[in-house]
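Input sequence (278 aa), recorded before submission:
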Amino acid sequence: MSEQMETTQSVPTGFWQAVMIDLARCLRFYSRLPVPALPYEQTPHALPDFPRLARVLPLAGLILGILPALAMASALWLDLGPWLAAILAVSVMTLTTGAFHEDGLADTADSFGGATRERRLDIMRDSRIGTFGAAALFLALAFRIGALATLITRTDGVAAAAAILGIAALCRTAGLMPLVFLPPARLEGASHAVGQPPRDVFWFAAGLAGAAAIILGVLGGLPFEGIILMMALSVLSGYGMIRFADHHIQGQTGDIAGATQQIAEIAALFGLLIMIHP
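Predicted structure, token format:
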């Protein structure tokens, strides 16, 4: 977290003003996009209040999916082929988020080398990337690019763009699951500082993400059974990471949340592909 962040203050009483402020703060937290201060926003660099921000996370995910979808569509329009289009889309997503989730995946994978809970948490704090982390990053990027390229070849640019947007909302909501259902593993750090989202707020966000995925998928021409499996595997990935984190470090961290987002994204792409035959 930036040392310049201020403490969270109250938001305006207007409902839509409050939603827009939450969305702006969510985008600032999850991306490197230059989100300007809103005219009615008192503290644009306030510490994120996750009990509030979680409700708009699916909307932030949709917004974060726009640039990768446009990059993929541009590559296809230029006839660069599905693989270059997929590489460009994943690259743009990684740059847009500042490799935010990828960093969490790498740190979580590196923690496999720790023999004790305390050692695993120390490894997660270390900014250096080890062998496990590098391997996890390589495999995750390969899975995402390969799955997206395969999806493009089996469908078209419109369907693939719909999948990018829907999965961007689903996987970030899945990334909340360890934060919601497990206590912080440390009494300091980002996951403890931003607060634990209430379960009712999470279920609202999950419903919103699911509705967005279904609507976008249907409009994009994706098979309904593929959309359902995409959603189911995203949720199962989140549940699996809850079980893993509880056993691994008896709690959750921001790195665990980032790793969950990456795994949920890959699982959702695989679920979609299983139901879309060549």
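Checked by second reader. Confidence is low (pLDDT under 50) at residues 1-12.
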